[in-house]
Amino acid sequence: MNVAGKTIVLADHTQTDAREREIQLIINIVEPDPEYQGSLVTDEATLLDAVGVDEATMTQRLKQHFGDDFDFSLRLPLWKLVDAIKTRYPDWPDSFA
Hints:
The protein has 97 residues and is mainly α. Helices cover 46% and strands 4% of the residues.
């Protein structure tokens, strides 16, 4: 793509699309009702920014989903949280019910 004399190369959407799906899955775990999910999630947003559920409830729901060893900071940007989860649980999200 050429804009104002500059060439812009668009990145492959595969990783971006996968990350978007994984972030939405995390949001769905902590707040299953779409009505209470944030409408805009930026690349620096945390779970605390994305939904209105309190931190203790989020942690409880995530531990129910992932197991009691879920101890990640909910103050991490969502994309970093997804990376941390995928490092500890390499088969997530496909292997989790």
